[in-house]
Design a protein that fits this description.
The complex is a heterodimer.
Chain A (H helix, E strand, L loop, with lengths): L4 H30 L7 H37 L10 H5 L5 H27 L6 H27 L10 H4 L7 H7 L2 H24 L4 H28 L18 H24 L10 H29 L7
Chain B lengths: L2 H19 L1 H36 L5 E7 L2 E3 L1 E2 L1 H7 L4 E7 L1 E6 L4 E6 L12 E4 L2 H6 L8 E3 L7 E8 L5 H4 L2 E3 L2 H8 L5 E2 L1 E6 L5 H11 L3 E5 H39 L3 H12 L4 H33 L6 H5 L16 H28 L2 H5 L1
The chains are: A mainly alpha, B alpha+beta.
Chain lengths: ~325, ~375
């Protein structure tokens, strides 16, 4: 079952990411123990040189991981016709118990990697590399996540058996079952839209405050994360209905199919990017007091917040367009 | 333009002219790189074209096929079973089908002989409609040439060829020969009330599983093959063949990775001097790495585009002459058909990851090693 080119590509990415993560974490341990910019020793000099390599390598691997997340979902959707009972990515991911964990780990890696890359760029802008220790502590935390993601993904793909009867999304996303997905599906549509509007407003207000008065950045990051989860819930509870023009089809994965104009990508890409940038802005805000970053960081954070607001705005537009252009009448 | 963009533009500009200064070396790199992309892309495009073709063909197939089994082998099925199946609720129609294989000793090919299902195909006794590969391989080049078939020494049966099937369905109909039911029974010496298998059409696809469950009670010894089963088997078959070839190609990718790493680390004296000068005039390690990454990106984009476009031409315009025998399967009568061009994001992303990522991985460490050298050391 691993004998599929997209799967091999995904495993290649995971394998490379795992190797780089292991090596970087090993180097990170050295940095945490011995890093001292004031020291002119040969070892320190070599470490400084190696940080360039690690940054570049890690940056590339994380970009590849972001691409791999897209490919993973797209491929799961594509493979659905190989499994009895599967009609979209949900069926493929449900073939064995490692499918969804693999997806969640990939999503978590995406966000962690995005934050790391943002911190890395900020660090390289400061003249004395003020965030080096933070960065490498981050890598040491990230490495297990990347390795676990790769291992779970490998187990998932190795265990894909086409004669297994899997369940379709209409079984998973129905209010009648138990479990988180059903809870979310059962969320009343009006409440979901109010929550979405509320968190969107919170994002807009805190974003505006941080752009105009330079305060409330932390609040923005937090509301961005809240918006992310609320938006996912709202997509399952109500937005998907509008896209499908169907009062009972709640699946957040069928959205990715060509029949629905790949509308899922229009919704998810800005949402994920907006959230990643908001998270990055929040994390940078923590280091705004560092002496060598005092002049650089505020402008960077503003830029991140601005971009993040644009992304969230696009997500909002996509949502509104889904509702306006739909034939389905839920309210009234 | 932001400073960042301006810096990138300047770097790209510099890198392009630097690449131009070492044409020979870089062209050889791009050519080999493009060859690798071409190889993998051809395999992927061809098998995805085949998968699509199979799906197109199968969309016309009956929802369910019922076959009798004896000793675990496919057996003739009695005509009485047709009514039993047709009586199941949800079945639109059940029809006995007649088809078989004929081995032609003249050209060593197997024909699929079949009684047409389609009422619009009008055939009379002694007439036949042929798939496009049969007249081609038998050399029936003139209009109205009859087809003579010999089942055994001294036997000769004549069929008038009234029509040949179009190229559109060549994937399945290349070796097809359609004759009337009476001719079929006479030709193969078949009893009057038996069929090869039964095709069942079902109106609602969601009822297929239930209908099979009911039919299994009526015909416990039969085998039920759904259209989805066949489609899945084809998908898996082509996936598997594609995977096999890509795995073989990985050896080539690996070799290329080593080659690229060699190229990136073994700098010529002139290049080393260039980097030394750049560092001496104030470039820092980050700049040199960025410049080298630009170099890699330009080479990659060039090779990727060249390779992918060449593969497209090879597969969809040139009939994939290089890999077709392996991916199509083997047969004396090859269907002569053109694949419908089809590429999607999944393929391109996969192709990108499979080819560009190994290149990047192989060259990053050498690039860094070059970029971090001390200027005086490099220039010496």
């Amino acid at each position: 079952m691993i004998f599929q080119t997209p799967i091999m590509a995904l495993l290649l990415v995971s394998g490379l990411a795992g190797l780089v993560a292991l090596w970087s974490a090993w180097f990170g341990l050295r940095v945490l123990r011995r890093w001292n910019l004031a020291d002119g020793s040969r070892e320190q000099l070599e470490m400084e040189r190696q940080t360039h390599l690690i940054s570049t390598l890690f940056g590339f691997v994380m970009l590849a991981e972001a691409l791999a997340l897209l490919l993973f979902v797209y491929n799961a959707d594509r493979m659905a016709n190989l499994f009895v009972g599967a009609m979209c990515a949900v069926g493929t991911l449900n073939v064995n118990e490692y499918g969804f964990p693999a997806l969640y780990l990939k999503v978590a890696t995406f966000f962690a990697a995005a934050v790391w890359l943002i911190v890395d760029r900020a660090d390289r802008a400061g003249r004395d590399y003020p965030l080096t220790r933070v960065k490498y502590a981050g890598i040491i935390l990230l490495a297990p996540l990347i390795l676990a993601g790769g291992a779970v993904e490998l187990t998932y793909f190795a265990g894909l058996e086409t004669d297994v009867i899997t369940s379709c999304c209409s079984k998973l996303f129905t209010p009648a079952n138990e479990g988180l997905s059903s809870e979310v599906t059962g969320l009343p549509p009006a409440l979901a839209l109010w929550l979405l509007g509320g968190s969107g407003l919170a994002v807009a207000l805190s974003g505006a405050a941080s752009l105009w008065w330079g305060r409330g950045q932390m609040l923005f990051a937090v509301s961005g994360v809240v918006l992310f989860f609320v938006a996912l819930a709202a997509i399952i509870s109500i937005i998907s209905l509008y896209v499908y023009d169907h009062p009972n089809h709640h699946c957040p994965f069928c959205l990715l199919q060509p029949e629905h104009g790949y509308y899922g990508y229009v919704l998810y890409l800005p949402l994920f990017f907006g959230t990643a940038l908001a998270l990055g802005a929040g994390v940078l805000q923590v280091f705004v007091g560092r002496p060598s970053l005092r002049d650089i960081l505020p402008a960077r954070i503003r830029k991140l917040i601005g971009l993040s607001m644009v992304a969230f705005g696009l997500f909002g537009l996509a949502t509104i367009w889904a509702i306006v252009s739909s034939q389905l009448i839920v309210f009234g | 333009m932001t400073p960042w963009l301006r810096r990138q533009r300047a770097l790209a500009d510099y890198t392009l002219s630097a690449l131009g200064r070492r044409k020979g070396k870089n062209i050889s790199l791009v050519v080999i790189y493009a060859l690798i992309v071409f190889l993998v892309a051809s395999i992927m495009m061809f098998s995805s074209g085949m998968r699509r073709e199979a799906d197109l063909v199968l969309s016309e197939a009956p929802e369910l096929i019922v076959q009798q089994l004896t000793l675990g082998r496919h057996e003739l099925i009695a005509g009485g079973e047709v009514e039993k199946l047709a009586a199941i609720r949800g079945v639109t129609a059940a029809k006995g089908r007649l088809w078989g294989y004929y081995y032609d000793r003249l050209n060593g090919a197997n024909y699929t002989v079949m009684v047409p299902d389609d009422p619009t195909i009008k055939l009379e006794q002694g007439q036949a409609i042929l798939g496009e590969a049969i007249p081609r391989s038998r050399g029936l080049s003139w209009e109205g040439a009859p087809l003579f078939l010999s089942r055994f020494e001294g036997d000769l049966v004549k069929f008038d060829v009234v029509d040949t099937l179009s190229h559109d369905s060549a994937l399945v109909s290349a070796d097809l020969m359609l004759i009337t039911e009476q001719d079929f029974r006479d030709f193969f010496g078949l009893a009057p009330d038996v069929y090869t298998d039964i095709s069942v059409s079902i109106r609602n696809e969601r009822e297929i599983a239930t209908i099979i469950a009911k039919a299994e009670k009526v015909m416990p010894k039969a085998r039920f093959v759904t259209r989805a089963d066949i489609s899945r088997t084809y998908q898996k078959l082509f996936d598997w063949r594609e995977g096999l070839l890509v795995t073989l190609a990985i050896a080539a990718i690996l070799a290329f990775g080593i080659f690229a790493a060699e190229k990136a680390s073994g700098l010529s004296a002139e290049e080393t001097r260039e980097i030394g000068i750049l560092k001496a005039i104030g470039w820092d390690t980050g700049d040199v790495i960025a410049m080298k990454l630009w170099e890699g990106a330009l080479v990659s984009v060039g090779a990727f585009l060249t390779g992918a476009v060449a593969a497209y031409v090879h597969v969809f315009l040139g009939g994939a002459g290089l890999f077709a025998p392996v991916l199509k399967g083997w047969s004396v009568l090859y269907p002569d058909f053109a694949l419908t061009p089809q590429i999607d994001v999944l393929q391109l992303t996969t192709l990108f990851l499979v080819t560009v990522l190994p290149y990047v991985a192989a060259t990053l460490v050498p690039i860094w090693r070059v970029a971090t050298g001390d200027p005086d050391q490099v220039m010496r």
